[in-house]
Amino acid sequence: MKKFLFYFLTFAFLLTLAGCTAPGTKNSTGDNPKGAITIVDDQGKTINMQEPARRIISLYSAHTENLFALGLDEEIIGVGKADSHPPRVITKDIYDYRSDPEKVIAVDPDMVLIRPFIARSSPDFVRALENAGINVVCLYPDTFDDFAPYINNLARLTGREKEAETLINDFTRKLKEIKNITKNIEDKKGVFFESTEREYRTITNDCMAANAIRIAGGANVATDARPIKEGSSIASYGLERILARADEIDVYVAQKGAMNPGGTPRAIRNRPGFDTIKAIRDDKIHNIDEKLVSSPTFRFATGVHEMARFFYPEIFDDLSKFKTDAAITRQEMAEITVKHKHKPVFTANAKYYKEHYHERHEKHVYGGFADVPVNHPYFNYIETAVLSGYIHCEDIKMFYPEKQVTRDELAHIIFTLFDVKDNPASIEIKDIAHCKNADIIKIICQSNIMDLDQEANFRPQAHVSGNDVLASLERAEMLFR
């Protein structure tokens, strides 16, 4: 009887285990006869791997960017020639799916990541890799809702499930914070999004960029657009339909990048018939990096925030949170300058690196601050402020983000933000010899943008508060706007 009971309980336990695994699960991990990791990619191919990939070639920029975000670096042995983020991509070897596959085979990767476009356009290249025994994994999220499952697939293949969970939660939180603000805006801005200058094409209503518009609080005026072909996020529209909705378009956004190299605000403004569009008349024309809104990466949250800044600058570039007597740090000053100027955040492309990234350079290069990594919360503001010349850095490798801003530094920042003209009035500054930017400080004080103390001292090393900064900006704005 005891023996029978033992076998019965063992059998029941095994049945319970079997019932815990749903049959036909697309994305599964764990031990199995074929491999420790099993997923089905977007070509319907089952991928089996005994362990997470450790030698990866990524032939699509979004894959590359997301791999870095998951904490991979040394594991990435090759990238595509158009990859541009994060700045570490510049250190990686470049591979091209349009060239000889032997170059890839020779370095013996254990995984090559592609997207469906590559599988369709270069089938011989893909077949050669597969015949060489290389795992070729095809992934691409067709819609916004597919983004999290796509990231989870990357995480399973690389052993970064915990990192993926943290990133997705943070990504969701950022989008929710924006949506919580924009959902209460009653008068939504009408937006036309130009995906390509050719035939004035726009986007389909379920793609990443369309979701960016919605979350940012915009109303896409081209929801009736139809894709140029099945599965494409690019949609036909044309000049006639745009002009028919001229009065509905409050903001005109044209993405910039490989898909749309043209479409600058100046070019858009000069197009025949475009002067009838409300956005053009009101000078509400913006460019946005296609990598921020049309590419499935975590920087999509940055793209949505940029869209919201385009649509509602009075809300998203509002500086009232800095109305405080607390000392302002350099990272906060970077945010203030970018928002005050309504400056779009800077993004680098492959061409930028070719032109600016050298072994020896005398000026700061995007992503070059050792104390401001790409996941730093102020990264975009700091890079934009420095590369725009708003904040000066003597040390091209260090920004010192938490260092407090001095009056001497604020005077220099104000001078760069405005077209400050010399004032003929004469003013005595007793401690001018101790001021680093002496000539600038004289002009700033003569213009009454910044005050001296009762003893006529400027106090260059004194720290400034948020109220000090906003007061100086307001005075300068009144004088030199």
Plain-language structure description:
It is a single chain. The protein is an alpha/beta fold and about 475 residues long. Among the domains are: about 30-160, Rossmann fold (3-Layer(aba) Sandwich); about 185-310, 3-Layer(aba) Sandwich (Rossmann fold); about 405-480, no CATH class. It is about 40% helix and about 10% strand. The protein has helices at about 1-20, 60-70, 100-105, 115-120, 125-130, 145-160, 160-180, 210-215, 240-245, 265-270, 280, 290-295, 300-310, 315, 330-340, 350-355, 380-385, 405-415, 440-445, 465-480, and strands at about 25-30, 35-40, 45-50, 55-60, 75-80, 95, 110-115, 135-140, 190-195, 200-205, 220, 225, 235, 250-255, 285-290. It has a five-stranded parallel β-sheet with strand order 6-5-4-7-8, sandwiched between helices. Strand 12 and strand 13 form a beta hairpin. Helix 6 (about 145-160) packs antiparallel against helix 7 and helix 7 (about 160-180) packs parallel to helix 13. The longest helix is centred in the middle third of the chain and has 22 residues, at about 160-180. It is globular. The model is unreliable at about 1-35 (pLDDT under 50).
Task: Give a topology summary.
Layout: H1 2-19, E1 27-29, E2 37-40, E3 46-49, E4 56-58, H2 61-69, E5 76-80, E6 93-95, H3 102-106, E7 111-114, H4 116-121, H5 123-131, E8 136-138, H6 147-158, H7 161-182, E9 189-194, E10 202-203, H8 208-215, E11 218-220, E12 226-227, E13 234-236, H9 239-244, E14 251-256, H10 265-269, H11 278-281, E15 285-289, H12 290-293, H13 300-311, H14 313-316, H15 330-340, H16 350-356, H17 379-387, H18 407-417, H19 438-446, H20 466-480
Parallel strand pairs: 4-5, 4-7, 5-6, 7-8, 9-11, 9-14, 14-15
Antiparallel strand pairs: 1-2, 2-3, 10-13, 12-13
